[in-house]
Amino acid sequence: EYMRGQLLANGFGEGRLHLLPGFTDKSPGEPPAQSGESRVLAVGRFDEVKGLEALPDLFSRLRTPGWRATIVGDGAGLDRARARARELGLAHRVQFAGRISQDEIDVHYRQAAVVVVPSRIPEAFGLVGVEAMAFARPVVAHDIGGIREWLQDEVTGFLVRPGEWSAFAARIDLLLGDRARAARMGRDARASVDARFRPQRYLDRLLEIYASVAAARSGPPSSRGAQNSFKSLMTA
Questions:
Q1: CB-based contacts of 87: which residues, under 8 Å, 6+ apart?
Q2: Cα→Cα distances 200→24, 25, 29, 227, Å
Q3: How far apart, in whole angstroms, are the C-alpha atoms of residue 158 and residue 175?
Q4: What is the spatial distance between Cα 42 and Cα 51, in angstroms, rounded to a whole number?
Q5: How far apart are CA 45 and CA 98, in angstroms?
């Protein structure tokens, strides 16, 4: 919806736009039990867009005893973030996992108590958060771009105004300190993904779009010829 609004504002006709939400095929079966650790997870790129460079300063605001954090991803800002964590005395608490396989990322989702999405600029969608929710993990994220289309504030996690880092840290602390609430939000998050962001739902909607476009083009002989050519290509 966010991207649709942007396109409409820039002159695209409403009739030319079809909304097709993203999806995740991550499905760990029964939602994994929460780890006993107070572990925070972030996944993305160190590119001054996803906000990962700001995480050492964010984590320095946490008040939950014994917390640990893992940041998955690489990019130009990774070394600066590592240096900042050392400056803040957090080198023993923050693990920089670098770029790892999807299977390894899934292990971190299972171990996390909460997943953070600190994007600095509007996200068109924000797949990391949806993946975290598929693992029944609550998400704390900046309320920016299309994130609120999948993250329901105070139900599946928390939305925070961009730049309000004290509030962001407070929401993380709340979830780390209230594991029953975090587990409840995680279950609601998993249910939301299963209902709205699965491959079959995506494919069903995609086929609807193809059918509507094909129907709109059936009429003039030239359009029918082009459509038949397309069908022949698809059959081949």
A1: 56
A2: 10, 9, 16, 25
A3: 10
A4: 10
A5: 9
Q: What's the one-letter identity of residue 224?
A: R
| pLDDT category of residue 188 using cuts at 50, 70 and 90 | very high
* Per-residue model confidence as pLDDT tens digits over 13-41: 998 899 998 999 998 877 777 767 799 99
- 113-137 pLDDT per residue, tens: 999 999 999 999 999 999 999 999 9
Count of CB atoms within 10 A of residue 203's CB? 12
Of the candidates 193, 118, 181, the residue with the CA atom closest to the CA atom of residue 150: 193
Q: What is the DSSP letter of 15?
A: G
Q: Phi/psi at 56 (nearest 5 deg)?
A: -55, -45
- 223: part of which helix (H) or strand (E)? helix 221-235
Exposed e or buried b per residue across 85-118, where buried means at least 16 C-beta atoms within 10 angstroms of its C-beta = beeeebeebbbbbeeeeeeebbebbbbbbbbbbb
Q: Name the pTM for this structure.
A: 0.88
- The tokens 């299963």 sit on which residue? 194
Beta strands 114-117 and 139-142, pairing class = parallel
Say how far apart CA 114 and CA 117 lie, in whole Å.
10
Average pLDDT, the chain: 91
